[in-house]
C-alpha cells in the first residue's frame, strides 16, 4: 500500500499526455501562460492590437473621401441648376420692371429744386393697374406724347449681334433703352380743369383758384409765357418746377391735345428720391394743389427738351435672387455645411 501511495504522489508531477519538455521545465510553461494572462489583464502590448487601432484611421479617411465625393456632387448639381436660377432671376427682374417699380435717372434740371440732375427716382407702376390716376401735384414719368423729344433721338450704331443682345437685356430690365423717350414733370391740371397764368398778382390759377407753388426753383415766376387751357378728359397738363428751363405743356399747345399728356402715356408716379442717399426723401403732393376743389366735369423760345432714362437697378436684386435661390433649390436631406 505504501508503495502504491508513493507512486500516486510521484505521478502527480509526471507529464500528462500531450505535455512536452517545456511543460515540465520548472513550471516555466505555466509561468509563461500566467504571464500572458497577466499581460493581457494589465493591458500591455498584444499582437492583435495594431489591427484594432488602424480601424479608426481607416474610418476617418473613408469619411473624408465621402465628404469630398458629396462636395463634388453638390458642385455638379449647382452647375446643372444654375441656368434655371438665372432664368428665374431674370423673370423676377422683368416682373418688377413691368408691373411694380422702375428706377429713372434725371439728366436735366427741369425739375429743380425738387429733383436734381443725377438723382434716381423710384416710379410706382403698380397702382395704375388698379385704376389709380395721377392727381394734381403728383410728379409723373410719361412717354413722349409726340414731338416733345424729337431733337433728342440718337441713332444706334450697334451691330446686329450687339444690338440683339442689348435688346434682350433691355427687355428684361438689365439695361436702359437707347430709344426710351420718357419725361418727368409735375401734374398741374387733370381732365376738366382750367389752368391759367397769370392772375394780377402773377400767380398760376387752377379753376379760378390761385395756387401757391413753394416747389418752384428760386427766381422763377410761375410762367413767363401767358396761357389759358381747359384740359380735355383723360389728359393731364404738366409743368416742370424749374419753369425757365422746362419745355413742358406750355410749349406744345399747338400739338393735338393742346400740350396735354394722355393718361395712357403715363408710366407711373415718382414717389421717392432713392439716390444719392443724402437726398433720400419722399415726394409728397403739395397741399396747395391737392386741396383744390375739382372742376365741374364737362366731359418765348422753348427751352431744350431732355428726356429721362431708366436705370437698370434691377441687377442688385437679381444678384440677391441668385444668392438666395440655391437655398430654395437645395435638395431635402442635405445638411447645410
From TrEMBL:
Membrane topology of this protein: Single-pass type II membrane protein
Enzyme class label: hydrolase
Domain called Peptidase S26: residue spans: 80-275
Reactions it catalyzes: Cleavage of hydrophobic, N-terminal signal or leader sequences from secreted and periplasmic proteins
InterPro entries named in the record: LexA/Signal_pep-like_sf, Pept_S26A_signal_pept_1, Pept_S26A_signal_pept_1_CS, Peptidase_S26
Bias kind Low complexity: ranges: 30-58
A Pfam match: Peptidase_S26
UniProt keyword Protease present: yes
Disordered: annotated span: 1-69, 291-311
Annotated transmembrane regions: 82-105
Cell compartments where the protein resides: Cell membrane; Membrane
EC number(s) stated in the UniProt entry for this protein: 3.4.21.89
Keyword annotations: Hydrolase, Membrane, Protease, Transmembrane, Transmembrane helix
GO MF assignments: serine-type endopeptidase activity; signal peptidase activity
Gene Ontology terms describing biological process: signal peptide processing
Membership in a protein family: Belongs to the peptidase S26 family.
NCBIfam families reported in the protein's UniProt record: sigpep_I_bact
Name the record gives this protein: Signal peptidase I
Amino acid at each position: 500500500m505504501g508503495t502504491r501511495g508513493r507512486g500516486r504522489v510521484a505521478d502527480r508531477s509526471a507529464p500528462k499526455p500531450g505535455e512536452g519538455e517545456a511543460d515540465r521545465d520548472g513550471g516555466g510553461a505555466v509561468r509563461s501562460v500566467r504571464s500572458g494572462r497577466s499581460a493581457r489583464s494589465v493591458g500591455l502590448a498584444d499582437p492583435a492590437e495594431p489591427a484594432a487601432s488602424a480601424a479608426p484611421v481607416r474610418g476617418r479617411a473613408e469619411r473624408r473621401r465621402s465628404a469630398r465625393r458629396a462636395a463634388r456632387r453638390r458642385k455638379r448639381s449647382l452647375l446643372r441648376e444654375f441656368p434655371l436660377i438665372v432664368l428665374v432671376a431674370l423673370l423676377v427682374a422683368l416682373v418688377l420692371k413691368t408691373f411694380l417699380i422702375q428706377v429713372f435717372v434725371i439728366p436735366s434740371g427741369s425739375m429743380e429744386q425738387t429733383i436734381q440732375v443725377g438723382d434716381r427716382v423710384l416710379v410706382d407702376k403698380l397702382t395704375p393697374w388698379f385704376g389709380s390716376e395721377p392727381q394734381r401735384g403728383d410728379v409723373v414719368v410719361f412717354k413722349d406724347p409726340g414731338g416733345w423729344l424729337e431733337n433728342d433721338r440718337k441713332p444706334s450704331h450697334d451691330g446686329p449681334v450687339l444690338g440683339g443682345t442689348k435688346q434682350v437685356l433691355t427687355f428684361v430690365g438689365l439695361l436702359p433703352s437707347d430709344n426710351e423717350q420718357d419725361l418727368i414733370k409735375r401734374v398741374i391740371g387733370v381732365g376738366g380743369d382750367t389752368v391759367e397764368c397769370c392772375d394780377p398778382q402773377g400767380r398760376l390759377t387752377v379753376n379760378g383758384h390761385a395756387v401757391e407753388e413753394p416747389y418752384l426753383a428760386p427766381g422763377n415766376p410761375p410762367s413767363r409765357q401767358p396761357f389759358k387751357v381747359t384740359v380735355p378728359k383723360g389728359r393731364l397738363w404738366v409743368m416742370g418746377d424749374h419753369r425757365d428751363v422746362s419745355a413742358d405743356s406750355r410749349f406744345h399747345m399747338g400739338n393735338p391735345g393742346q400740350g396735354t399728356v394722355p393718361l395712357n402715356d403715363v408710366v407711373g408716379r415718382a414717389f421717392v428720391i432713392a439716390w444719392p442717399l443724402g437726398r433720400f426723401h419722399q415726394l409728397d403732393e403739395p397741399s396747395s394743389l391737392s386741396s383744390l376743389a375739382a372742376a365741374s366735369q364737362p366731359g418765348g423760345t422753348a427751352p431744350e427738351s431732355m428726356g429721362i432714362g431708366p436705370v437698370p437697378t434691377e441687377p442688385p436684386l437679381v444678384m440677391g435672387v441668385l444668392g438666395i435661390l440655391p437655398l430654395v433649390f437645395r435638395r431635402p436631406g442635405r445638411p447645410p455645411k
